[in-house]
Design a protein that fits this description.
This protein has eleven helices and 13 strands. With 319 residues, the chain is an alpha/beta fold. Keywords: ATP-binding, Kinase, Nucleotide-binding, Transferase.
């Protein structure tokens, strides 16, 4: 099964303090990133098959990103160039490794993704489409994403959405809760952080999650930093502990988590078992979360995005 990711690939400019001429100064180091791209790399580094649908600028950053994705054996056939510039995300880390973002996405290349860019991408029952809420943040992106999801449904292709809410991506952030809710109801799998749900829906977050399940979402996952992951399926619910780790940088934490989960899911479904049947056993959900939480724990112990994502050897070595 191939994991087909849709959305932004960008440059994370990671802020770090260094000693220079006796002074403590901040520098920004460029890392390849972007949530959908991170997931594609996460799957590939674990030994899975992945591809990315995106656009980059005809600039040095864009060339670097495509070259880097190829080096991780991500299928880049569906990455085109645009007149827009490759997006930048300046990332500041506090002492606990938590992030704040400043996005430079005005006229960004990935915002030029159109229906024509997604219409020719082959979809089968052995494909799983993954995207984030940023793929619904502008009218044009909403149209192209909705087109892909609709076609995926007709091809028996599974759909996964990481909420990954970034207000800086949205032209009108006040519209985000309703737009994200409507998109989420069409998914098979949803992953969100508790922080994102609180920001989007406040005290209604629990009600929204229940509505997603009522709409037919097969698996809903809520992460909460070092706290246990909450899961909800049609037949079971519960919490799953995350491994203890030393946090350096949370930039790729959620992407490593969902990438690990999708890799393990693609392996588990390779025999032909259907998603709902597989998820009917709580031990199968625990198997997915065992890999996902290990991947997340390893990623936060390292700096950057692509470089921080684990290999099979890495997850086998974590207790």
């Amino acid at each position: 099964m191939q994991i087909l990711c849709l959305g932004e690939v960008l440059v994370d400019m990671l802020g770090q303090y260094v000693e220079q001429n006796g002074e403590h100064i901040k520098i920004f180091r460029p890392f390849a990133g972007g949530a959908p791209a991170n997931v594609a790399v996460a799957v590939s580094k674990l030994g899975g098959s992945s591809a990315l649908i995106s656009k980059v600028g005809n600039d040095s950053f864009g060339k670097m990103l495509v070259s880097t994705l190829k080096s991780y054996e991500v299928d880049t056939r569906f990455i085109a160039t645009s007149e827009g510039k490759t997006a930048l995300a300046f990332v500041d880390l506090d002492e606990s490794g938590e992030r704040t973002f400043d996005f430079y996405v005005e006229n960004a290349a990935h915002k030029d993704i159109t229906d024509a860019d997604v219409s020719g991408v082959p979809l089968t029952s052995q494909t799983l489409v993954h995207l984030c809420s940023g793929s619904f943040s502008t009218p044009q992106l909403r149209a192209s994403s909705a087109s892909l999801i609709q076609r995926a449904k007709s091809c028996d292709t599974l759909n996964c959405m990481d909420i990954n809410y970034r207000p800086g991506f949205w032209q009108n952030p006040e519209q985000a809760p309703e737009i994200i809710d409507n998109a989420a109801r069409k998914m098979d799998i949803i992953k969100a952080s508790q922080e994102e749900m609180d920001a989007l829906y406040g005290t209604d977050a629990g009600h929204i999650v229940q509505q997603w399940q009522d709409a037919g979402v097969s698996l809903i996952l809520l992460t909460d930093g070092a706290q246990p992951v909450s899961y909800l399926s049609a037949t079971s619910s519960g919490k799953f502990d995350v491994p203890a780790t030393t946090v350096k940088d949370t930039t790729a934490a959620g992407d490593a988590f969902i990438g690990g989960l999708l890799y393990q899911l693609s392996t588990s479904l390779a025999s032909g078992v259907q998603l709902k049947e597989f998820l009917s056993k709580s031990e199968n959900i625990h198997t997915l979360l065992n890999v996902a939480t290990r991947c997340g724990a390893i990623a936060v112990s390292r700096f950057g995005a692509f470089d921080a994502l684990p290999s099979q050897a890495d997850i086998n070595n974590i207790s």
